[in-house]
Amino acid sequence: MLGLLIQAPKIGFGIRHGWRPLGRPYKVTRAKRNIVWELDGKSAIEVYQRYFGPQIGNLERKFLLKMVINYPLGMSVPGEKEYLVRNVLDMQLDGSLVFSSDIPEGREVRLMMSNKELVIAAARDAAWQAGQGMSSGEIGLGIIFNSASRYKLLGKERDEEIEEIKKVLTKIPLIGFYGYSQQAPLSGELNLGQSYSHNQSVVVLVLGE
Asked: Does any domain span residue 3?
């Protein structure tokens, strides 16, 4: 985990993921930390079997992980409009799903879907949101906290995501890196709401005077 302590007179912040809900919601009925055994009282893996067939659990790990990058789960958060995206790391023989971050019992989750166009558009929206957070003054620096899952999903088009951010935040230096999770609020306002662990999201932070 990498943390940054930033002191700047003015800060703007934006976060987006670009995934949309697919199908009906499911209630997490049996889970502990980052392992979910049951959704709606049934084996958690059935969510994926419903769409991709019963053979999904037999896929080689490398093909399985490539597929679930496109179809993570989205977890609802009380009081928030956006879903928190949760990466599937493994599908176990007992039908449970192992995630990269915790999913508490009682939460509502939905299968999520996206494509490269939506993912790139989300980066542009995050940059715009960050710029709008600067009420006045010039932006001196932009910092991008991106997800390694987005890097894998976009493949050769990964540079297009950065170019879209540059189109919004013009004429300023940009730095950034890819990681496995991002720690940020859901609202896009640094002083509003709780901070969460995000997956498959892009965070854009701008600093000004």
From this structure: no
